[in-house]
C-alpha cells in the first residue's frame, strides 16, 4: 500500500512537472554519478517517506542513495525494498514515459537488518513490480506464484483499478520486436552483433521491428504485452552493461519470468547466467540484461554457442 501511494504521488508530480517547474536538473549527482533531475530527487523523497513510515520495512536501497537506508527501530518491519524511484530519467524533460521499479524481500537477519539482507539472489524476491507514468499511469505487480497483475490509475477516484489478471507474454513469443540501444552496437560482442544482424536480415522473411523508448519500464511493458525481447547487453565500454541488478535487473526479470518469459544476463563474469541466479556483491552493481519471450532470449543464448563464446 505504501508503494502504490508513492506511485500515485509520483504520477501526479510527473503530470504537473511543466507547471510546477520540476523539469531540469537538481544540481546534484546520484550514487552512480548520474546528474539528478528535480523529479528524481522528489520521487526519491516520496518513496523513502512512504516506505519508512509504513511500519513494514527494515532497510531500503534506492538508485538515488549511495548507501542502504536503515529504518529507525521504532518504525522498522520485516521487509526489504530495492527501488528505482524514477527510471528513464533521460526522458523526463521531453515528457516521454518514465517509471518506478521495485522488488521486495523478507529480511533474514534475526535482529536488526544488515546489507546482507539485500545482497542475495533474485530467487528470494517475494514481490516485484513497476509503475509506468505514460498516457495512463499503470502499475504492474506480481506476488511470487500468484501471477502478474495490471492496474490503471483512475485519477477521478485516485485509485488503481485492476484491469488485467494473470498477464502472460503472447503464445509463441508474439510480435518479432527487438529493443536495444543500437548506438552501442560497435562495442557489442560477436554474439549480440550476430543475433541482431540475423533479426534484421531474415533472408526474405519480414525482418524484426526495432522499438526503443529508452525507458526500461516502457520497453519492458511493451515486451510483456506484445512480445519480443529487450536487451541492454554488456559491451567493450561497459563491461557489466548499464542497468543495476537490485532495482532494475532483478525486478524486471522476476516479472518477466512470472509472465511466462525468460530473463538472462547473456555472458556475465565469463559464463551465461540466468539473471535471477546472480548474487550481487554491492548494492549498485550492474549486470547485462536480456529479457523477453523465450523464443528470442534462447536465440540470443544460442548465438553465443554458434559464435563459440561459451
Ligand atoms: P536511469 O535509471 O538512470 O534512468 O537509467 C536507466 C535507463 O534510463 C533505462 O530506463 C533505459 O532502458 C536505459 O537507461 C537507457 O540507456 P541508454 O540511454 O544508454 O540507451
Automatic annotation (TrEMBL):
EC number: 3.1.3.11
Residues covered by the Fructose-1-6-bisphosphatase class I N-terminal domain: 1-164
Essential cofactor(s): Mg(2+)
Compartment annotation: Cytoplasm
Uppermost EC category: hydrolase
Key word Manganese present: no
PROSITE patterns: FBPASE (PS00124)
PANTHER family: FRUCTOSE-1,6-BISPHOSPHATASE, CYTOSOLIC, FRUCTOSE-1,6-BISPHOSPHATASE-RELATED
Name of the protein in question: Fructose-1,6-bisphosphatase, cytosolic
Lineage of origin: Eukaryota, Sar, Alveolata, Dinophyceae, Suessiales
Amino acid at each position: 500500500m505504501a508503494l502504490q501511494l508513492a506511485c500515485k504521488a509520483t504520477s501526479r508530480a510527473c503530470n504537473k512537472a511543466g507547471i510546477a517547474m520540476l523539469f531540469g536538473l537538481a544540481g546534484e549527482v546520484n550514487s552512480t554519478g548520474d546528474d539528478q533531475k528535480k523529479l528524481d530527487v522528489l520521487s526519491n523523497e516520496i518513496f523513502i517517506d512512504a516506505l519508512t513510515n509504513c511500519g513494514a520495512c527494515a532497510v531500503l536501497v534506492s538508485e538515488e542513495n549511495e548507501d542502504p537506508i536503515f529504518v529507525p527501530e521504532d518504525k522498522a518491519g520485516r521487509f526489504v525494498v530495492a527501488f528505482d524511484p524514477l527510471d528513464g530519467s533521460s526522458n523526463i524533460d521531453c515528457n516521454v514515459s518514465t517509471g518506478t521499479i521495485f522488488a521486495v524481500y523478507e529480511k533474514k537477519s534475526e535482529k536488526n537488518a544488515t546489507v546482507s539482507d539485500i545482497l542475495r539472489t533474485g530467487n528470494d524476491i517475494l514481490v516485484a513490480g513497476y509503475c509506468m507514468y505514460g498516457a495512463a499511469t499503470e502499475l504492474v505487480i506480481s506476488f511470487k506464484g500468484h501471477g502478474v497483475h495490471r492496474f490503471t490509475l483512475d485519477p477521478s477516484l485516485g485509485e488503481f483499478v485492476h484491469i488485467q489478471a494473470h498477464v502472460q507474454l503472447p503464445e509463441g513469443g508474439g510480435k518479432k520486436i527487438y529493443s536495444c540501444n543500437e548506438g552501442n552496437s560497435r562495442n557489442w560482442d560477436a554474439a549480440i552483433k550476430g543475433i541482431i544482424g540475423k533479426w534484421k536480415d531474415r533472408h526474405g522473411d519480414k525482418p524484426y521491428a526495432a522499438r526503443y523508448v529508452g525507458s526500461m519500464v516502457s520497453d519492458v511493458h511493451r515486451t510483456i504485452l506484445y512480445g519480443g525481447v529487450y536487451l541492454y547487453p554488456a559491451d567493450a565500454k561497459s563491461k557489466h552493461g548499464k542497468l543495476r541488478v537490485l532495482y532494475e535487473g532483478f525486478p524486471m526479470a522476476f516479472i518477466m519470468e512470472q509472465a511466462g518469459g525468460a530473463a538472462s544476463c547473456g555472458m556475465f563474469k565469463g559464463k551465461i547466467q540466468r539473471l535471477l541466479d546472480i548474487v550481487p556483491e554491492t548494492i549498485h552493481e550492474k549486470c547485462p540484461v536480456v529479457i523477453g519471450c523465450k523464443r528470442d532470449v534462447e536465440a540470443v543464448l544460442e548465438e553465443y554457442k554458434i559464435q563459440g563464446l561459451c
